[in-house]
Amino acid sequence: MSRRIVLIRAVNVGGAKLPMAELREIAESLGATDVSTYIASGNLLCVPDGDPAAFDRALEKAIEERYGYFREVVSRTREELQTALDAHPFEVVEPKFSYVYALTGVPSPDAVEAFEDHGWEHEDVKVIGADLHIRYREGAGQSKLTAPRIAKALSVQGTGRNLLTVRKLIDLAA
Question: What value does the mean pLDDT take over residues 122-126?
Answer without folding.
Answer: 96
